Amino acid sequence: MSEQLLIILAIVLVVVLLGVVALIYYRKKHPRKDKRLGRSDGSRKVVAPARAFARSHRFRLIAPAHLLANKKGAKLDAIIVGYFGVLGVIGLGYNGNIYGAANESEWLQINEGGQRTYFPNPMDEASAAVRVIRNTLSSPKLKQIPVEVVAVFTDSTVQLAVPKTAGPHSLKTFKALLHKDKYLDDTGLDLDAVEAAIRAAVVE
Q1: Same domain for 165 and 76?
Q2: pLDDT tens for residues 101-117?
Q3: Domain residues for 12?
């Protein structure tokens, strides 16, 4: 092999190595942002316990519940209408480690392969969904109905490195939540009227 060919091969190898190093550095400095990642994976896993809970107490279930009210939209995987009020559920299928705080606009996922992904604070999404649901309950008789929306991380391997006050649930704690006494309170709610008002805002 000629000396000139060896030099060319050496230059090519150096260029490739520099390219790999530059790519690794870029990915560390610019983590991927994917606003929808995790939603489709989490939907099915939250709907099943929500449906079982609603059925066992003869409550109403709207799933999925993609709403539009007063030009504001919300995508929930399920809404339970019970005598206690309204409980909306957002499922998130992220795995790995989740880092975030209530006052941060974005949270961070570091998955099992070490990839870093930023995604919108799910508690902000839950708060916005509460406002949209309230907009659907605009009649005087429905305005004071209690409305709550919870975000649930459904992957069994997920580790939530977030303060408990931040509000998200694992699938296990969500199932336990449904057994709390407050969801068995009977406020005399007209389930037909509440369900009809919310379904009127469903867009898909």
Answers
A1: yes
A2: 989 999 999 988 889 99
A3: 1-30
